[in-house]
Amino acid sequence: MKQNAKAIQLELDWLHEILKTRSTINSRPESGPEDLLDLPAPDLSRIESDYSTLIQNYELGPAERFLIILAAVPHIRPQLLDMFTARNQHTQQIYTEFGVRKGKTGHGILPTGEMVLFILSGKNLEKRFFYQSLFDPQGVLFREGIIRISGTDPEESFLNGVLTLSPEILELITTGKPQKPTFGPDFPAQQLKTSMDWEDLVLEEDILLQLKELESWLKHRDYLLEEWEMNRILKPGFKALFHGPPGTGKTLTAALLGKKMGLDVYRIDLSLMISKYIGETEKNLARVFERAERKDWILFFDEADALFGKRTAVNDSHDRYANQEVSYLLQRIEDFAGLVILATNLKTNLDEAFMRRFQSVIYFPVPGFEQRQELWKKAFPKKAHMDPEIDLYEIAKKYDLTGGSILNAVRHSLLMALETKERIVRLEDLREGIRREYQKAGRTI
């Protein structure tokens, strides 16, 4: 943190010198350098900081560094932009050329694309056109998601948008600890974690073999596409469908696959994804996919038939926009370069046109007797004392429950055991837990 502060202070001093020089040139055009970026950027090569590493890793020049530090100013030195509050003496308005945007909740100034071009080019059109290339979506800062421009109306110039530094980069250069994205309406995805290990997964052998293909793709995709040049005929991503009854291990398998391969898994909340405001769904979705591609996340859509089901008939404008949002989401999944897993309880509810796009379709059935027996054994803690009457072999043979239902029944029996002095798991409590699981499914023992 100390080294980051040292590096960023030097960048802020450099930015302040640029801003001061722009102010001087405005009143005396003949003064100052021909190009403000000729003012030498500080040498950070000897400062071991996350900010310096960022610059070195992406080989950022003065122009890119200028954008980053300007975007960071509202978060670390907001008063540096107070010079842009100056008003025209005749109109009493802030000068239009400043490209000023004010914060929604405070009085601070937010940097915009127009502000960048004003600082670097002033009234020089040739320079303005030259520096406008800094906002090329294929430029390193925008391509890697380090910076974006946001908050523009479709009818306005995109340069009126606010220059925004990604939260991960902001945290990295200020605290030295990049933060995970925060789950909410603006980011409808939550990291899927588990304390279990791959060895705890109880599935039939043919399912494990099918999952092996997903592992192989995650390990060898770059070699497959680049070295063997299969990118000529194959799309870069991989799409898998997990289908089967609730509680059969679809979500757990996705979490464990990510854990085994050392990749973060993010579950998409479809209820937050679909916005009542036209266009907001696409924005929310874009945020998730952009981060996922940069971070090499696995994306997991649970209860996917809620969104990817058969298309609705277009009876009104709401139906039309709903279908447009689904089409947009399908296209983003199609273009995603990583692994996307969709899970559903009812495969027949999915749109047939989308079904053809999966590279792998894996069915998670209700576990058979051998799997149930293994699940019962693994569900109880080693320290638990069991009633001698409990025969897990007979219980597994008699009751066809899913893994999720077995865990629920075990949880009930353990809680009841903790209510007694002996703390012994009793057969009657275990049977009661099983009865409740049957009742949930509309079945009787």
From TrEMBL:
SUPFAM superfamilies: P-loop containing nucleoside triphosphate hydrolases. Keywords: ATP-binding, Nucleotide-binding. InterPro entries: 26S_Proteasome_ATPase, AAA+_ATPase, ATPase_AAA_core, P-loop_NTPase. Pfam families: AAA (PF00004). Residues 236-368 form the AAA+ ATPase domain. Belongs to the AAA ATPase family. This is AAA+ ATPase domain-containing protein.
